[in-house]
């Protein structure tokens, strides 16, 4: 049986060798897809510790990048289990970090998670203009559009992007994600949902697709 508290502590302290050993033993025990998702959620939640340590000055930007890479590796380790019952694409998601913001760790984690449950992802990268979002959305007709941002200024960029897409007649569901997004910001921006957690964001997208089918 996997010790989730031990795993969470190792993730929060960025002890990559210990994390990998714990997860390799877990995967070799033939876990269920649901168990793998629960383990992944624990690993993601542990990232909040990394963020707190960064804010306290105990971690630096390099540590944040390392944390993002570690979580990506965790996803790769768990992917065979989480994808074992996945047989079809659930929908298309267009995603990017909005104009003026260059952060992509959270976005990339969301992409990794969304792919494991069957979504087809189109990543526009960072500092994405309104015009690029609109042009790509018109071309691929995504079911869902994800806007990511970490900076406070990203809120206004998200609003302008959402306004631009609505003016262009794009009907896709829109989810926003990042540290500054809140329920109030979501209403201001005009998005359909918000999240500060990549795993929660994937669940929102899954629910939308299920409700449409």
From TrEMBL:
Protein name: Cobalamin-binding protein
Lineage, highest ranks first: Bacteria, Bacillati, Bacillota, Clostridia, Eubacteriales
B12-binding domain segment(s): 90-213
Organism: Acetobacterium paludosum
Molecular-function annotations in GO: cobalamin binding; metal ion binding; methionine synthase activity
The UniProt record lists the keyword Metal-binding: yes
Gene3D superfamilies recorded: Cobalamin-binding domain (3.40.50.280), Methionine synthase domain (1.10.1240.10)
InterPro entries, per database record: Cbl-bd_cap (IPR003759), Cobalamin-bd (IPR006158), Cobalamin-bd_sf (IPR036724), Met_Synthase/Corrinoid (IPR050554), Meth_synthase_dom (IPR036594)
Domain B12-binding N-terminal, chain residue ranges per copy: 1-90
Keywords assigned by UniProt, alphabetized: Cobalt, Metal-binding
Annotated GO biological process: homocysteine metabolic process; tetrahydrofolate metabolic process
Highest taxon of the lineage: Bacteria
SUPFAM superfamilies xrefs: Cobalamin (vitamin B12)-binding domain (SSF52242), Methionine synthase domain (SSF47644)
